[in-house]
Amino acid sequence: MFSFKRADHPYSIHITPYERRSRQDVRDMLFRSYRSHTHLDWQESDQWLDAERSPVKLAWIGRRLVGILGVSEPMEGECWVRIAAAQDEGDPQPILDALWNAIYTDLLANKVKRVAILMMREWLFTPFKLLNFREHEWIVTLRRLSSDIPAPQTPPGVAIRPAEPNDIDRVLAVDHAAFGALWRMTMSDLRSTMRAAASTTVAILNDTIIGYQLSTMYFDGSHLARLAVMPNLQTSGIGTALVIDVLRRFARRGIQSMTVNTQMSNERSQHVYHRLGFERNGYDIPVWIMDLNSTRSNN
What is the dihedral of CA 142, 282, 175, 171, to 10 degrees? Predict the structure, then answer.
C-alpha cells in the first residue's frame, strides 16, 4: 500500500492495486461519477481489469474509493490510459497525482516510454495537463450517408470473404504490420472485437490474408471500426475494395450509413474515405501523450 499526503489536502490518500473484491466499488464509481473516463474499447471494464496484464491502481480515503487509474497492456513501450476516475467532490488533482505517482514506477518497470489518453471528457484537461500530458494528435470522424454504392473494385487476383475463426493469427499479423505500436490491438482485443463485430472480412492474395476490415452495427447505421492492409500493398486498392465490399454487405441488410475514425495525420486513409463519399462530421477527439523519458529527465 502506498500513502500520499499533500499539505493542501486534508486527508491521507492510500493507493492499492486493483483486486477483484473491489470490483463493485469500481463499477459504482465509473457509473455514478461525472469525473470518469474509459477508453474507446472492445472489452468491458471487468474483462480487462480481471485480465491483470497491466497496472491498475485505486485511491482510498479511509474505506471510500475516491479514484481509479489504469493503463492498457504495453505494446512495444507504449500504452493508453484505459480508465481514470476521481470523486466528484473537491479537487481531483491530489487524487490523480497520488495515483500517477504509484503507477509511474510500474510503467518504468515495464519499459513503457509513452502513455496516451483520448481526451473525451472536459474534466480531464486540467489534471492531465498538470501531469505533463500534451496534445499529440487528433482522431477525426467521417460519415457516409449516400445509398449510392460504387461497383466492386477488387484488384486482380484478390478475393474477399468473411473471416473465419482460424484466420485470427494472420489478421493480428496484418494489424501489427499496418499500425504503429500505440494503435495495435492485442490478441485479446482482437478476439473481443471479432465477437462484437457485425461484419469481419479478409482480403486474400495467393492464399495469404493481406488485409481485413471489421465493422459494427448500431440502430440504423454501421461503423467501420478497423481497416488494415499490409504496408507493401497499401496503394493497391485493397483497402478501397474492402470498404466497398462491406458497404454492399450492409446495404443488403438495409443499412445505408457508415461512420469511421482515423488519425488526422493519416492523409492516405482520409483520401480513400473521401473518395468513397465519407465526409468529416466534426466529432474529433484529441490524443494527448506523456513521454516518460522526457518527464524523467526533467525531474
Answer: -40
Q: Where do the domains of the chain lie, and which CATH numbers do they carry?
A: 2-131 (3.40.630.30), 141-286 (3.40.630.30)
DSSP the chain: -EEE--TT-SS-EEEEE--GGGHHHHHHHHHH-SSEEE-S-SS-HHHHHHH-SS-EEEEEETTEEEEEEEEPPPBTTEEEEEEEEE-SSS-SHHHHHHHHHHHHHHHHHTT--EEEEE--SGGGHHHHHHTT-EEEEEEEEEEE--S--PPP-PPTTEEEEE--GGGHHHHHHHHHHHS-GGGPPPHHHHHHHHHH-SEEEEEEETTEEEEEEEEEEETTEEEEEEEEE-GGGTTTTHHHHHHHHHHHHHHTTT--EEEEEEETT-HHHHHHHHHTT-EE-S--EEEEEEEHHHHHHH-
13-49 confidence digits (pLDDT tens): 999 999 989 999 999 999 999 999 998 766 667 777 7
Give the pLDDT mean for 107-136: 95
pTM of the full structure:
0.88
Please provide residue 271's backbone torsions phi and psi, each rounded to the nearest 5 degrees.
-60, -45
In degrees, to the nearest 5, what angle opens at C-alpha 116 toward C-alphas 112 and 120? 155
Place of cell 473525451: 120
